[in-house]
Amino acid sequence: MDLSFAYLRERDIDILLVEELSVNPEFGAWFCAELHEGFSGAKIASVMQSLNTKYDGETDIQVVAETAIGRLGILLENKISARPQPNQAKNYQKRGEAGIHASQWAKFITCLVAPRKYIEGPNEAPLYDACISYEMLLEYFSRSTDSRSTFKGAMLREAIEQNRRGQVAETNEQVTTLLTAYSKLANSEFLHLGEKARDARKAGAHWMVFQPKDYPKGVMIRHKLPQGEVRLYLPARGWVGIRFHRAANPNCARTRAQAGRSLSPFRIEAGRTQGANRMSNGGRWHSLPNATQRGPSRACATGRNNLTSK
After folding, report:
1. CA angle 159, 21, 137 (to 5 degrees)
2. Given pLDDT bands bounded at 50, 70 and 90, which one contains residue 109?
3. Residue 165's pLDDT is what?
4. Torsion sign over Cα 85, 204, 117, 48
5. How many C-beta neighbours within 10 Å does residue 235 have?
6. Spatial contact of 92 and 109, defined as CB atoms under 8 Å apart
7. For residue 195, what are the β-bridge partners?
8. pLDDT tens across 251-269, in order?
9. Are 213 and 196 in contact (CB under 8 A)?
10. Is the pLDDT of residue 90 over 90?
11. How far apart are CA 21 and CA 56, in angstroms?
């Protein structure tokens, strides 16, 4: 069977690891033994993905294993090409220590999982207690010829190749955490708005983009968080007339400005998001928009089916 992947994200490899660690005892024992010979024969007790803490970021995968030396916490950071966040390895150590104080485990180990080229590059790899390369994972799955192992091996080969092709834009962990939560809210309450989730965001990212499926082609809604406004963008060509009912906000101001190949004739003042003035320089954000700042999504939602073309 021929397998191909248009593009793999780190979350895809996260799911691969979570699945294997959860359902394949042999893989779990092998993985722990690769971390340290003293963990040979370990049994996986629990696996959790994408654990966020308020101040020190996210653990991609948290594993608890029963070993000969007691309960072990394994904190995994998975990378394909994204550059490390500031103090990322240090924050993993903090979360490991916190787990000891909370009696989650007696000892812990932090581990970077990534292509070999990434591990050997100029990054924080030496600051982790251990490293497992994608090539090591690929070698493990290559030992078996069943279709399931073949599929996982193909995923890992593609991820290694993606890394070989080059680095991607630098991302920001705090920006990603905030806007991922925003995306989940938008897609749970306002699915028709068509917000497109992304795995990671650059430090200067501060717009949320919506492309409603039931609006005419080319229509786009952008929530500009630092400016505290929602803008409706229309195609610069191809429309004879456009109507937009302002039931969403009686104070909606009509403006017209050329923006590349789109026009932005409508703007809704939505209130600034807390911490938005620090978005452009990658400053820490410690909270999500409050209830009054959820207005942008609701404002856009109110306008559904009120936008028509003649």
Report:
1. 35
2. very high
3. 81
4. positive
5. 15
6. no
7. 210
8. 444 444 343 444 545 566 5
9. no
10. yes
11. 25
The DSSP-derived string for 169-200 is: ----HHHHHHHHHHHHHHHHH-GGG-B---S-
Amino acid in the structure at residue 229: E
Tell me the mean pLDDT in the region 269-282: 47
pLDDT per residue as tens digits for the range 193-250: 777 655 555 545 667 888 787 777 777 788 877 767 787 776 654 443 344 433 344 4
For the chain, the distance separating the N- and C-terminal CA atoms, rounded to the nearest angstrom, is 50
* DSSP one-letter string for the chain: -----S---HHHHHHHHHHHHHH-HHHHHHHHHHH-GGGTT-EEEEEEEEEEETTTEEEEEEEEEEETTEEEEEEEEE-SSPPPPTTHHHHHHHHHHHHHHTTS-SEEEEEEEE-HHHHTSSSSGGGSSEEEEHHHHHHHHHT--SHHHHHHHHHHHHHHHHHHH-------HHHHHHHHHHHHHHHHH-GGG-B---S---TT--EEEE--TTSPTT-EEEEETTTTEEEEEEESSS-S-EE--GGG-TTPEE---EETTEEEEEEEE--PPTTGGGGGGT--------GGGGHHHHHHHHTTTT-EE-
Tokens of 98: 């916190």
Distance, CA of 152 to CA of 136 (rounded, Å):
13
Q: Is residue 274 within 8 Å of residue 243, measured between CB atoms?
A: no
Of residues 111, 116, 113, 112, the one with CA closest to residue 161: 116
233: its two tokens? 């963008």
Between 9-13, 21-25, 55-59, 139-143, the lowest mean confidence (pLDDT) is in 55-59
- Using CA atoms, how far apart are residues 263 and 218, in angstroms rounded to an integer? 11
The most confident of the ranges 51-65, 157-171, 205-219 is 51-65
234's tokens: 């229309």
Across 24-38, 123-137, 237-251, least confident range: 237-251
Tokens read off for 219: 């229509």
Q: How far apart are CA 2 and CA 265, in angstroms?
A: 49
